[in-house]
Write a structure and sequence with these properties.
There is one protein chain. The protein is mainly alpha-helical and 423 residues long. It is built from 18 helices and 4 strands. A hairpin with a 2-residue loop joins β1 and β2 (149-151). The chain is globular and about 65 Å long.
């Protein structure tokens, strides 16, 4: 296979010490290290929409990430099939996009967005918490954790840029944001991703920098949107949250145009004919074929082809994704059942965070070591309160739904657990 001219040495450079090369490309190594990582396997028991273990057929963070990766790869193949500007020796690497897609949710905590909001509330005055920033933190710093410490996977520059949906620092906002930021301590990573190039002032205004993405990140982002805007609908119907009656009642209060009515009619037909998966699988194909490349000019375009091109998605597909996301949000995510999950997440996460903080950050007398030895050592090694808070946050966000519930019960339920269960 001819060498791929789309990428250069700048794209392939690795964060940290250089990795040993073998028969795989650098991007294949990125992908393989993610797939075989403990943090990736934990996604099988982390909430996507419904609480992990609640139903047998719904999506978890793991199956969602696999679907996003499949869509991302397919977009790469489709764009190459369209021809210019791509060719057999000048193309977007599907292993790189696959790695970006597989990694994109690894930093998310248990209980989905409910858990993310709760951790952000806890960390608001100590640097914030954000799922995408936590993914970057894992890849660069903490993916491999053991008794001796932590380290990342030495990712390529292109992979780090591929997962960087947001590039604006927490401290660059006038007031602390709720989401869509990276941690202040990740500024060196951002500088390295840009190769030390000065960021134009225009990009630092408002949220413009968050919209400045590599083409692989744009593909990952659209693949993510395509997957959850459509698949959340399928899961919602199968779980009984989305019925024709509920959707019609919701639509009565919305400004429904001809295109939106067509989307609803297609959904209703699929529900009545029990062809939901088939109908929405075809929509995935339409979303993939809604993509094309467009040349662009910016301060990074001379360094890498990843910024010489941008992904353009047809307006009709974008509009349909927005419509289904709003439907899922209003009917499923705003439902009493999901509100109960959010309340449960707040109670569990806040109780655990406060218990750990009390024992490891505030105690002047004997610490009650309620955490695994390696986690206790990492917290103790931090010299600042903010550093200790970040390590506590790392521990909690690394739990699965089941793990964090068991830990909570071991600490707060007097009738749960025995000495053999305690770790």
């Amino acid at each position: 296979m001819p060498q791929n001219r789309f990428y250069n040495e700048f794209d392939l450079q690795e964060w940290g010490s250089a990795r040993k090369s073998d028969y795989r490309s650098p991007f294949q190594i990125d992908r393989d290290r993610i797939i075989h990582a403990h943090a990736f396997r934990k996604l099988q028991s982390k909430t996507q929409v419904f609480l992990s273990g609640e139903y047998d057929f719904y999506r978890t963070r793991l199956t969602h990430s696999m679907e996003v990766a499949q869509i991302g790869r397919s977009i790469c193949h489709y764009l190459l099939s369209r021809g210019a500007p791509l060719s057999d020796d000048f193309f977007i690497d599907d292993a790189l996009v696959e790695a970006s897609c597989l990694a994109h949710d690894m930093g998310h905590p248990p209980f989905g967005h409910s858990g993310e909001r709760t951790l952000q509330e806890q960390m608001k005055r100590r640097g914030g918490f954000e799922g995408n920033a936590q993914t970057l933190h894992l890849l660069c710093e903490t993916m491999y954790q053991n008794e001796t410490g932590v380290r990342g996977i030495q990712p390529t520059r292109a992979l780090l840029d591929g997962v960087l949906k947001y590039k604006k620092l927490y401290t660059e906002f006038a007031t602390p944001p709720v989401s869509h930021f990276i941690y202040a301590g990740q500024e060196p990573v951002r500088d390295w991703v840009f190769g030390g190039a000065a960021i134009p002032g225009a990009l630092l205004r408002d949220t413009a920098l968050n919209d400045f993405k590599s083409v692989e990140c744009q593909i990952m982002d659209w693949a993510d949107d395509a997957a959850y805007s459509l698949n959340d609908i399928v899961d919602g119907v199968r779980a009984g949250f989305l019925t024709i009656e509920r959707i019609e009642s919701w639509a009565a209060g919305e400004a429904i145009g001809a295109a939106e009515q067509q989307h609803m009619d297609s959904l209703f037909d699929a529900i009545r004919a029990d062809r939901l998966e088939n109908t929405f699988a075809k929509k995935i194909g339409i979303f993939i074929q809604a993509c094309r490349l467009k040349a662009r000019d910016n301060f990074m375009a001379a360094k890498t082809n990843r910024y010489r091109y941008e992904l353009v998605v047809d307006a009709a597909a974008l509009s349909e994704a927005v419509f289904f996301k709003k439907m899922a949000n209003d009917i499923i995510f705003e439902s009493p059942q999901l509100a109960q999950l959010e309340y449960k997440a707040r109670v569990i996460i806040m109780a655990l965070y406060n218990a750990i903080w009390e024992n490891y950050a505030e105690r002047n007398e004997r610490v009650i070591r309620i955490l695994p030895v390696n986690v206790s050592r990492l917290i103790a090694a931090e010299k600042t309160q903010d550093g200790k808070a970040r390590r506590i946050c790392d521990y909690i966000s690394g739990q699965t739904d089941g793990m964090i519930v068991r830990t909570y019960r071991q600490l707060f339920d007097a009738e749960f657990g025995s000495f053999r269960d305690l770790s």
